[in-house]
Specification:
29 strands, 20% helix, 448 residues, four-stranded antiparallel β-sheet, alpha+beta
Length: 448
């Protein structure tokens, strides 16, 4: 541009009329800018809310929620802190349940792993115990009877005590439990005798799943409640007795509550677990506590002693009352017979010192066969008995999907994304201003 042309343009600009601009032009610009920001925020929130209902892939990445995988996983990981709750989205029937401390309230909570490999959290109320999973994996009985498919929670009346885990019938239509006691503080008389005792059992009841009704089948006393249904569900074995020195084993008719047989139990004997009846219904499996190798007089009253105790199985002929001991002696830790697989008992064995758990199968006269079933969390996981007896046990390791989250987690994620987008826009604008200033500084002056 020549100097003459530059002066001509300057003169024309000075003679040109002023541009007419509305007085509220600045306000209009700010209003448009605010509307654009609001629209961007609304769009981000809509995307976040929509993402909550999308069928995200599960942890294995090979299936989507809603599938029915009848294979037990070899290992199950902890849930995320933001894991979706069961009350918001039921995911039963369950493949397994286990306790975890990996939750927002920092208290032990229950993890429900569905047959679609989804994870859900159930937060416990203070003082609430866990409960028992039904053989088909559909129901969970603790302080309430919960349908894991529909999410319906039914309060039983009178309430059953979750201090003694309920024992399910093989068909998952009923369970035996203990009615909770109103007395919570034990008191003694002037001579030291116990007047009331919160551990004292009164009514042993059958809980009906279809209608939630309770039927008393026996009135007894026992320090520790143990029970097992026969394979056909018609008979019930329970332990009664004021202390271990006076225990009795009762065989009841489930339909009538009639005592069919009474057998004495020694202080070292107890029903082996919820699956203590043999598959043919002729024998009842007991565990016999041998004591500690270094101190046979230890009673297992503290965890260190419980870890040192040894046991072996006994086979009680229900018809004759004959007890036969297995050949193996000195099996370690604390056992619970939970299923039968290929004709052999399956036990969950807990070490009370480190709270570790192993699930083993005991072939007749053979060494324990460790089953590849592990879960992170506290103690032994609960598997549906039907699954333990019939399903393959070689499923892949299972981890929760991070997208199976509570609603607040998606909102928080949306806000974080929105803040990141705003920061990027702000930095980009700052970079543009600096770039424009830098270019203006290095641009050559026009010739005059």
């Amino acid at each position: 541009m020549t100097a003459t042309l530059h002066r001509a343009l300057v003169d024309l600009a000075g003679e040109a009329p002023d541009m007419r601009m509305p007085e509220d032009l600045w306000r209009r610009g700010r209003r448009i800018r605010r509307r654009r920001r609001a629209a961007g925020i609304l769009a981000c929130l809509l995307v976040s809310v929509t993402a909550m209902w999308l069928p995200w892939p599960n942890a294995t990445g090979s299936r989507f929620a809603g599938t029915d995988d009848r294979t037990l996983p070899t290992w199950v990981a902890q849930p995320y802190l933001w894991q979706q709750t069961f009350s918001e989205d039921p995911n039963g029937p369950a493949k397994l349940v286990f306790e975890t401390g990996h939750s927002l309230d920092l208290e032990p909570s229950l993890v429900v792993v569905g047959q679609d490999d989804s994870f859900r959290l159930i937060y416990h109320d203070p003082g609430e115990w866990t409960g028992s999973l039904s053989p088909d994996g559909r129901y969970f009985l603790g302080d309430n009877l919960v349908d894991l498919v529909t999410g319906q929670s039914r309060k039983l009346s009178p309430a059953v005590s979750s201090a003694w885990p309920a024992v399910w019938s093989p068909d998952s239509r009923s369970a035996v439990a203990v009615v909770g006691k109103d007395d919570v503080v034990p008191t003694t008389g002037p001579t030291g005798e116990r007047i009331n005792d919160p551990t004292r059992l009164d009514n042993i009841v059958i809980v009906s799943v279809p209608d939630g009704s309770l039927r008393v089948v026996h009135v007894a006393e026992a320090d520790v409640f143990r029970a097992a249904f026969s394979p056909d569900g018609t008979r019930l074995a329970i332990t009664v007795g004021r202390d271990r020195q006076n225990q009795e084993l009762l065989i009841l008719d489930v339909a009538t509550g009639t005592v069919q047989r009474t057998l004495p139990l020694g202080e070292r004997q107890q029903i082996a677990g919820s699956a203590a009846w043999s598959p043919d219904g002729r024998r009842l499996i007991l565990t016999f506590t041998e004591g500690c190798p270094t101190s046979p007089s230890c009673d297992g009253s503290i965890p260190e002693q419980s870890a040192l105790q040894r046991f072996h199985l006994q086979y009680l002929d229900v018809d004759t009352g004959t007890v036969t001991d297995e050949a193996v002696r000195g099996r370690p830790d604390r056992p619970e017979l939970i299923a039968w697989r290929q004709g052999a008992p399956v036990l969950s064995v807990t070490n009370d010192v480190d709270n570790s758990c192993a699930i083993v199968r005991l072939p007749d006269g053979g060494s324990p066969e460790a089953l590849p079933l592990r879960a992170a969390g506290y103690g032994c996981p609960q598997y549906p008995r039907n699954a333990l007896e019939q399903w393959p046990l070689d499923g892949p390791q299972l981890r929760p999907s991070p997208w199976q989250a509570q609603n607040w987690a998606y909102i928080a994620l949306g806000l974080v994304v929105l803040a990141c987008v705003g920061l990027v826009v702000k930095l980009r604008r700052r970079w543009r201003r600096r770039s424009t200033t830098w270019r203006a500084r290095i641009a050559p002056d026009p010739p005059r």
